[in-house]
Design brief:
Length: 200
Amino acid sequence: MNKFYVQEPLPYGFDDLAPFMSQEQLSLHYQKHHLKYVENANNIFAQLEEMRKGNKEGDISATLKTLSFNIGGHILHSIFWKILAPQGQTGSPSEEFIKAIDSEYGSLDRFKQEFSQVAEKVEGSGWAALTYCKKTGRLLLLQIEKHNLFIYPTFAILMLLDVWEHSYYVDYRNDRKKFIDTFWQNVNWNEINKNFKDLI
């Protein structure tokens, strides 16, 4: 079976994000949940081939929806891991990024407040994301439900926070707000600056 999607190694060790994310939490998230999306996506391609050959019965529409869910999960997690960094290695927002943030939100503190609110209010499982619209030059926040709902097509994702329960339940139980508040200690501004610079 072809492996179209491959899980990249983490850019840090499993215990390097503590206390924001414990070794147990990160290991479970990366080695179980993220890896499962990769494996599922690759398996679904094989299923589709068999269905199209007439060797396997199934609902193409439902299968493609499941494929979208798993590919979305893999891509978003791949971005998410790079948005995190050990404390002391996070850098700070660049002048260019701060200028764009100030233009849209008024201040970095206001942006953090809105981003945190977006993350906290995601219904069920999903993500908070900062995206960039080339058409307007604006930095826009959005809530992604699951992995593949309410995404702006073609909008680049600059930063993400995973608020599925599997991303925080070991360390925070059901306290999503505390998880979000602690997240800011490990935001990798160096990566976000790079993402922004690549777009403008």
